[in-house]
Amino acid sequence: MPGFIDAHRHVNSNPDEGEQMQALLEAGYTTVLSGGGPAEGGIALRDHIESGQINGPRIIPSGRVSLSSTPEEARAEIRRMASMGIKFTGEIVLTSFPGPSEREIEVLGAILDEAEKEDVMVQVHAVSVQSTMAAIEAGVPLLVHMTNKNFLSREQAQIIAASGVNVCSTVGFASPVFGVYSNDNVPTFRNGEAWPNSIALTNRVPELHLGQEAGHAPVNARTEWDAGVVLGYCTDTGYDPLAGLDHELKILSVMFSMEDLIKMMGPNSASYIQMSDDLGELAAGKLADIILIDGDPLAGYWEWLKTRVVIKEGKVVVDKR
Q1: Taking the complete model, does pTM exceed 0.85, yes or no?
Q2: What are the sequence ranges of the domains in the chain?
Q3: Which positions ≥6 away from 155 have C-beta within 8 Å?
Q4: Rounded Cα–Cα distance for residues 169 and 266 (Å)
Q5: Which pLDDT band holds residue 204 (cuts at 50, 70, 90)?
Q6: What are the E-state strand segments in 3-48?
Q7: Residue 145 clears pLDDT 70, i.e. is over it
Q8: pLDDT at residue number 58
Q9: pLDDT digits over 255-273, tens only?
């Protein structure tokens, strides 16, 4: 199969980076787009891998820019980011309820305008219908998460598709995790704390009900897919990469066929990270990012958890045969 792409995972340089990057490779990931954090740390991690200091997937760094800035401060941060060679912002969070403020939209507009001039892609975190549609109206090119706080209508999904935005799945958000942080059969949130009480926002927003995001996200993903939205794959997890792959694929497989998932994780994820010419398919002219799995990828998502060989740009970087 083509090497897996995680189009939104928070990675940065740290004392344990060698072990963390090796685990990503062994799970089958050959490309990771950083979800945010200090730009300098993402660049350092990328450079450590490219120089051969550590083994790891291709890292695409991103840079932090805040909506709490003034419009001019935000523009300056985009210019600084571009001067460092960074082509993506980290996720920019829009308020879910009652929706983004006029101030947020003003600053976001300045970011989008400056980013277009500097050839930087803007990633936005919009997880309610209100914030999602506001992001679409503003002209955001990349949405890093599924809408998970309420349900999108078919008509809204068609508007999202018509905008040309790329969206990441992250349907495993809020579904309970088992057997990663403990083996006592107690459900946890993805941060290892109690499920559903530790899900972000659920205890602070009256409109939300504990754990219902676990239903909103996969249903909204299917609604967007059927409307023609280019839906890619990501995990946004911080725990073991193989366990995160298992969890995300398990939830996705309830709503999508294996053929759909191959398209989602391959060409669609390559589109999200702006590397369609190089990644996402086994084809002439593409980079030789290839994984060999011990099974039939069309048989079920569990076969995707059996990566034995990882080849990145033609070089064998993992061999478990």
Answers
A1: yes
A2: 1-62+257-321
A3: none
A4: 13
A5: low
A6: 4-9, 29-34
A7: yes
A8: 98
A9: 999 999 999 999 999 999 9
Tokens of 150: 């309420």
pLDDT given at position 202 = 61
Structure tokens at 132: 């999602």
Q: Are 287 and 181 in contact (CB under 8 A)?
A: no
Buried b or exposed e, range 35-74, using 16+ CB within 10 angstroms? bbbbbebbbbbbebbeeeebbbbbbbbbbebebeeebeeb
Nearest CA-CA partner of 84 in 54, 102, 70, 64 = 64
Q: What is the DSSP letter of 170?
A: -
CA distance 67 to 126: 13
CB distance 264 to 233 below 8 Å: yes
| Tokens found for residue 122 | 């803007």
| DSSP secondary structure code for residue 99 in this structure | -
Fold of the domain spanning 1-62+257-321: Translation Initiation Factor IF3 (3.30.110)
Per-residue model confidence (pLDDT) at position 207 = 65
Sequence-separated (6 or more) residues with CB below 8 Å from residue 317: 25, 55, 310, 311
Angle value at C-alpha 250, between 247 and 254, nearest 5 degrees:
145
Spatial neighbors of 149 by CB under 8 A, at least 6 apart, are 96, 97, 127, 128, 129, 201, 205, 207, 208, 213, 216
Q: 42-45 — which CB contacts under 8 Å span 24+ positions?
A: 42/11, 42/12, 42/13, 42/86, 43/84, 43/85, 43/86, 44/13, 45/11, 45/12, 45/13, 45/17, 45/21
Q: Is residue 200 predicted with pLDDT exceeding 80?
A: no
Cα–Cα distance, 91 to 88 (Å, whole number)? 9
Q: Which two tokens stand for residue 60?
A: 């695409």
